[in-house]
Structures are given as C-alpha cells and as structure tokens.
Amino acid sequence: MTLITDVRLRRILDSRGNPTVEADVVTESGGFGRAAAPSGASTGEYEAIERPPTEAIAAAREHAVPRLIGEAYAGNQREVDAILRAADGTDDFSEIGANSAVAISMAAAKAGADVLGAPLFQHLGGAFRGDNFPIPLGNVVGGGEHAADATDIQEFLAAPIGAPSVGDAVFANAAVHAAVSDLLTERDVPCGKGDEGAWAPSIDDGEAFELVDEAVSLVEDEVGFEISFGLDVAGAELYDAGSGTYEYSDTSRTTDEQIEYIADLVREYDLAYVEDPLDENDYEAFADLTDEVGDRTLVCGDDLFVTNTDRLADGIDVGAANSILIKPNQIGTLTDAFDAIELATAHGYDSVVSHRSGETEDATIAHLAVATDVPFIKTGAVGGERTAKLNELIRIADDAT
Ligand SMILES: O=C(O)[C@@H](CO)OP(=O)(O)O
Ligand SMILES: [Mg+2]
C-alpha cells in the first residue's frame, strides 16, 4: 500500500524569499506527503551540501526519483533514506543536494503516515514513544548572521522550563518576545526583526542580557512558572582561525577567555542552555566548558556536530558538550537524524530538534521532536513559518492527550 508511485519536486519560497525544494510523495493506495527543505545562514562547515534548488531538483529527478518510484515503500523510512543515499553516491549529498534529499525523506514519512491513517509523530515514534512534550526554546533577541547591526551573540532564547504544558510554554515565549519589545520602546531603542522573528536591536550583548533577563522575569511573574533563558552563540561565526580569537564588536577573546566568559554568563544568568559557545573544530574547548558548567546547563553542539553520528561519536569520546542540535537538513535524511538522536540518548546526551533561519510552513520537526521524546525544540517564538511548528505542537498535544 505504501509503494511509492510518484515523486514530484518543485521550487517554492522560503521565509527569506529564497527558493527552496518542496517534494510531494504519492503512494499506490493514494497516500500523500508533502515537505519542504529549510535553509541555514550560519551553516556549519561540515553540513551536508545544499545545492541551488534548480540543480538539486534536476539531479534528484535524474538519480533518485527513478529508484524510488515502483521500488520503495514510503512506510519503510530506512529503505527510502538508504535509496536516497545510494542514488546520491557521496558522503555529503553533494550530488542530489541535501535540500532535495531531506524534502523527499520527510515527504515519504508523511505519505507513510497518511496511508496508515496515523499522525506523523505516531508513525515515526511508534506506539511506545514517551508521553513527554518538548519545551520550546524561543528566539526573542538576536543578531549575528541573522541580522545586521545587532548583537554579536546570534540568539537569546526564552526557555520556559517550568511550563505545565506545551501550550503554556509557547504562549510564554510569545509573551517574552512582546515584553522585550515593550522594554525596548520604553528605552527608545528602535528595532526591527531578524531572520527568525527575534528582535534585532542595535545594542551590545551586555544590554541584551539585561533586557532578556528583565523580560523573562516580568513574564515569569505573570504566568507563575519558571522561565529561564539560553543562547546560541554561533561561536564559529565569531572565531577567527588566523588569530585564534573570538572577535566581538568591542573586544576579542582567546579560547580560554571565551570559556570563562561563557561559564560566567551561565552562572550569572542561570542559563538553561548554551549552543555553540565555541568554534566548530574545537572539541577540546567544548570539553573544558562542559567540565566546568555541564552539570548546570545544556552545552549544545550545532555546528560542532551537524547532526552527524561520526562527529557526535568524536564528541562523546572526549566529553565535548552534553547535548546535540538536530537539524534533518544538516545531514540529509530522517534516518540520519534519528540515528543521531539514538546515539546521543545512549550516551546521556540530550537532543534538541531545531528549525533553520530560512524556513517554510513545513511542520515536520514538531512531529520529529514529539516522536523522539527530546526535551527541547528550538523553533522561534513568532512569525508564520515559526508558528507553523509551534501551533502544530499544540495540536499534537491536544490530539495525544
Ligand atoms: O544556528 C542555528 O542554530 C540556526 C537556527 O537557529 O541558524 P541557521 O539556520 O542560520 O544555521
Ligand atoms: Mg546554532
């Protein structure tokens, strides 16, 4: 019944107005799945390769589609993804593009779920998945590669760790986002939004910490549960390999100074989460920081691990970080993303499923996060392509309980 009978690929718009790949997968019994690839701006050096959509589509039509139609079963995700890998023939999807691969992989999963008549999270997670829901990390202030003339640190993320439900958590993040705007208005700081819908004021990182801390406290008092916050430093974007230093607008830090700076921030603001605090090649520095503050916060590898089990295994060996960011398009298929989560879990690393800065209305990651029982999902706080996932989480919770 889930035999794939058609795969259609097209270019659609992403949230930055750039083209991206959308895939439709149709099965013998009329099952249908549609999914679209997201796209990063602060991409990791070791990510699978995103090709220009026109090229990715042409290559996938030539190499992958004929191997799927009449051959693969959408209900058998590992088979579909193995065929995508074999059809591509490279380690990094540079032939058919990770954008074509991930769109087809996710569309096949949705077609498989459609045939079964099950919601996607149920199809992916099975009957014995846990009954936890991920806490959304909401980007409320940001800069880096996502906005010009704003903070050096890429993302300040509200983390409603005490929220009694997904819905409460989602609304709390939106309230923090609104509170930040009010505080900026009070201070006469004009400001627009970055790529992920976070406020992108022209203030320095120190001011942003004060601002987010205050916004979080205000909302915490209102809602009556604990809200912390966290960061995506996107350290690789700040790191200058030539000088071996982290270059901020107003200062420069050696690796040791960067470790101390981040550790101090974790302690001072009781940060729940710190993503990519260090360069993507520096496992050792990640391990040192994890030694220092890993018992009180999540030290998460995004550009460090790129959802890649080999890189994660290297990190596990040396104790670099204690959690991994999971972005299916960084590695190319849902199978690879699942394998990364499984390896992480087996070694006591938490997984955080994540959007990209360039997104579409596709809500697959909401289902992936629930299916795999991860503790956190990072998918923005406001904006249509972000609320597509957040609202889907609310629906899933409503559906499952
Ligand atoms: O660095 C990140 O974690 C992501 C998403 O927030 O950004 P991008 O998609 O630009 O890599
Ligand atoms: Mg990141």
- N-to-C terminal Cα separation, in Å? 29 Å
Give the name of the CATH architecture of the largest domain: Alpha-Beta Barrel
Q: What molecules are bound to this protein?
A: 2-phosphoglyceric acid, magnesium ion
The count of domains is 2
DSSP E strands, number: 14
Number of helices: 15
**Principal-axes shape call:** globular
Corresponding CATH superfamily of the largest domain: Enolase-like C-terminal domain
- Report on the biggest sheet: 8 strands, mixed, barrel
Using the CA coordinates, give the radius of gyration. Answer: 20 Å
CATH-defined topology of the largest domain: TIM Barrel
Q: What is the class of the largest domain in the CATH system?
A: Alpha Beta
> Which strand-content bin applies to the residues?
15-25%
Please estimate the helix content.
40-55%
Averaging pLDDT over every residue, what do you get? Answer: 97
The sequence of SSEs as H and E is EEEHHHHHEEHHEHEEEHEHEHEHHEHEH
Structural class: alpha/beta
pLDDT < 50 stretches:
none
Spatial order of the strands forming the largest sheet: 4-5-6-10-11-12-13-14
